[in-house]
Amino acid sequence: MFKIQRDLAEDILQQFNFDIEAAANFFLSGPSNEDVEMIDVSSNEPPPPLPPKSHKRRLSFYINFHTDEDKLNMLNFHLDDVPENRTVGDLKDLLINKYRDELASLAAKMGMCTEVDSMKKFMRFEGMQNPSGLNDSATLKSLHLPINNTWASYFKKRTRLRRPSSDGSIKSMSYNIKIRLISNHSNGESNFHHSKGGNKLIPLLGITDVTSLAELRRMAAQEAKVSVSSLRWSAKSPKNSNLERLVVDLNHITMDNTLLHYKLKSDQVYIFDVSTIPLPSTSKPSGSQIFSSHKGSRPYRLTKRPVVIDDDDDGDTLDQQEIDDDEEDYPVYEISDDEEPGLRAATESTNPQNLPLIPANLITNPVKALENFFVVFIQRYCNEADSSLPSFCLQTFSEAFAQSVGIQKAYERKPMLIYLHHDRSIASNIFCTKILCSDSMSAFLEENNLQIWPWDVTLESGREALLSWLEPRLSNVASEIEHMEGLENYPLLIMICKVAGAYEIAAILTGHGIFHIPISSVFADTSSHGIGDNDDDNDSFPPLLETSNIGASSSRNRRSRGGLNAQIVVSQLREKLQLYSHLLAPEILADSERLARENMREEQDRAYKESLRQDRLKKEAKEKELAELAAKEAEAQRIAEEIERTALEKQKLAAKSLPKEPSQGTPGIATLRFRLPQTNPQPPALDRIPEESRPQIANGFIVRRFNGTDTLKDVKNFMEFLGYGVLDFKLLRTYPRVDLTSNDESDNTSMVDLKLVPQETLNLEKR
């Protein structure tokens, strides 16, 4: 009897793609409100028949076969009418037989054997919900697959062995591994010795690819001066990377692989944070990962049940090894610098299901409230090994608004996602685990640089706080939330977009997977089909019934049927995002045109300012040139005045030293005729000589009489008196042609000795 009931239940679930909620809704909802009829309770009519039983379903597979290691290029394969009682190995055979040439060509390019058995051995599938059970002997029925499946596939290349050295021995690869001892303070004392200098990096020497995990743990324990079993390892590592697997295995004391197993790189430095388990303690943090839900938020340490993935000898298959279920019931998140009671994470002694996402005492402090929401949410709903952390925005509503729909520049603006949680809603658990913590949702948020702003409306004070934040900016959203009467609508995921200066509701997803949009929204015309509708499945699955009364009336909202399928939900969100991009295109174009005009004006302003600067530089250069010219003229005038003053002084001194001219007819005198130079026919100092002392110039000659005893010095003084300085002019005899001013030693020679008596003609020439 039990086996019959089990088979019946399994057949029913197959009709609904193993969606328990959809199956329950079908049988519990009964006829829709529009079809209600009066029924005689005494009637003996049989109940409505069950959905037709299908013993052997036929499955279809759309396989994207990756042709490179980076998974950038692919071939599209299609298999139809595959019985679900066939195995995964049979599926590989069908694929290879149908596409033998393409797969053999690809295997040859990868340096692999093109035999059927070899290609089958190295072929891998991705895309199913339970990859741990995927092996060649597993039946397709055991995987609980829908009718239409989209999988990814690729050839996993054999791990290459290290090349031997010239002497035939295999060289070990050394690794640069350092640890940082993180102190855990308990009762005011540190578990680590302070002689290590706090968080200083400590290198572990002699680490090679043949070093085992046990040796690595032992070396770290020696540095930390603690036991190996009390160590907890963590490192910054990408998700599903070899380094993350290494951290998980280091925290599992029974694992003892060598480092060769994790394919580390010898030219890279690996830094591990090593801490200890504080004793006594009710929590067991392993520190395998550090998460931060938003930029600038404080880090949370996640302890998950470790999953150990081992490669076999030839690197062909991956096996999943589960750890004892009683070791850790829930992941533990530690807040490193806050001891607020409302923010304490659940431990083994506290079930996170009993903790409020946002306690009443934190509603007035939104930042701490959201941090508490994040901690408790992850402990409740992300405790599966394959769960993904949702990208939550843990900032105030105003900050989240300003960083999404509040951005002024259209090309930088993005939608705002709001998640409203209600603990008393029956759909909260399945919505969070299947939608928010799904890989599809995480990938969608990451690809589009989006975050979800969460809030808990379980408490009336939390709901009132939310409405007070929404009313000033998003009154239409507040109105929609007020019309959402009844717990059956919760939780809600709301997408808000700013289009043409107005804040529009792009979509509201309810806890039952139903999308609805206000009829006044510009997005309403696009909601013409349900997220659960699938033409390919209509033959095998009955449609889901609407089980909730959304909004006040159908005239206010455009609704679509739905089911909680993460990929379909994300597909609908992506459609809304694409429509938003289309609606935003005119604004982006207008912004770009406005920006172009502003750039043109700025360019013109820069050109005008540059023109003014050039004019100013020219003016300054002209002024500088005039100033330099004036300075030169002033200097020249100063020099001329200095020369004039010096010449005047010399003239005065020469006049004083000049002997008195003897009268004509005096015996023994020398009459000297000075021929003036043609370049200076008038003595330079003639104007400064008093009228009574001024010599007469006749035919270019000046005549002066000297006593026979007068010397050559007296003749030179007469030259200075006339302004013909000895330094600038020379005095030449006619015959022989001798310069009388060339030698100062003859200054005291008399006129008689110079044979200038009784008369002589002397020529004045410029030197």
TrEMBL record:
<feature type="domain" description="UBX">
    <location>
        <begin position="702"/>
        <end position="764"/>
    </location>
</feature>
<dbReference type="InterPro" id="IPR001012">
    <property type="entry name" value="UBX_dom"/>
</dbReference>
<dbReference type="InterPro" id="IPR050730">
    <property type="entry name" value="UBX_domain-protein"/>
</dbReference>
<dbReference type="GO" id="GO:0036503">
    <property type="term" value="P:ERAD pathway"/>
</dbReference>
<dbReference type="InterPro" id="IPR029071">
    <property type="entry name" value="Ubiquitin-like_domsf"/>
</dbReference>
<keyword id="KW-0175">Coiled coil</keyword>
<feature type="compositionally biased region" description="Acidic residues">
    <location>
        <begin position="309"/>
        <end position="332"/>
    </location>
</feature>
<dbReference type="Pfam" id="PF00789">
    <property type="entry name" value="UBX"/>
</dbReference>
<dbReference type="GO" id="GO:0005634">
    <property type="term" value="C:nucleus"/>
</dbReference>
<dbReference type="GO" id="GO:0005783">
    <property type="term" value="C:endoplasmic reticulum"/>
</dbReference>
<feature type="coiled-coil region">
    <location>
        <begin position="612"/>
        <end position="656"/>
    </location>
</feature>
<dbReference type="Pfam" id="PF21021">
    <property type="entry name" value="FAF1"/>
</dbReference>
<dbReference type="GO" id="GO:0043130">
    <property type="term" value="F:ubiquitin binding"/>
</dbReference>
<feature type="region of interest" description="Disordered">
    <location>
        <begin position="530"/>
        <end position="561"/>
    </location>
</feature>
<dbReference type="InterPro" id="IPR049483">
    <property type="entry name" value="FAF1_2-like_UAS"/>
</dbReference>
<dbReference type="InterPro" id="IPR006577">
    <property type="entry name" value="UAS"/>
</dbReference>
<protein>
    <submittedName>
        <fullName>UBX domain-containing protein</fullName>
    </submittedName>
</protein>
<feature type="region of interest" description="Disordered">
    <location>
        <begin position="307"/>
        <end position="332"/>
    </location>
</feature>
